[in-house]
Amino acid sequence: IDSLNVFHGALKGLEPLLRITNRLAAEYENAVLVTRPFLVEKLKNVRWRGQVRVFSCSTLSEDDLLVLLAAVEWGPNAYVLSDDRFSLHVERARCTGRLSLRDWMRRRMLRFNRQDWQYDELPSYAEFVQKVNPETYFLPVIEETPGISERSSFLVTY
Q1: Are the CB atoms for 102 and 133 separated by under 8 Å?
Q2: Domain count along the chain
Q3: Domain that holds residue 87
Q4: What is the H or E stretch that residue 140 is in?
Q5: What is the dihedral of CA 50, 127, 75, 133, to 10 degrees?
Q6: By the 8 A CB rule, do 55 and 35 touch?
Q7: Rounded to two decimals, what is the model's pTM?
Q8: pLDDT higher for 74 or 118?
Q9: Is 96 in the same domain as 83?
């Protein structure tokens, strides 16, 4: 959870941050908040509903980059909750022949709405076979695990 993006520095943002975090912790095996030291103090005595870890980064660090790198490091079942578009990092990440940062974000970002504090559910397209075009099918592969199921997919062309 990109908590600075959710919290946005206002105390009125703390309650929705707690609700969103508790909801995510109840739905998923783990929730990780990436934040700044000032918010850690406010979160110290919170009783979480699930397994929640709070990671504090220096005010001199690029917290957006830390959020993205943490999700990449934690693997294919890690998702990032943020309404940030990370445009600076997308511009910096020039890669060819590999999954681009923009493509990765399209698959791994859960967006939230500050108006009603709701967030995107995991995409349902990964749940069933779809015909992409007349000769291509999207085939989801889900491996059941004790935590969040591991998801992958294939595009099959005949």
Answers
A1: no
A2: 2
A3: 3-122
A4: strand 136-143
A5: -150
A6: yes
A7: 0.65
A8: 74
A9: yes
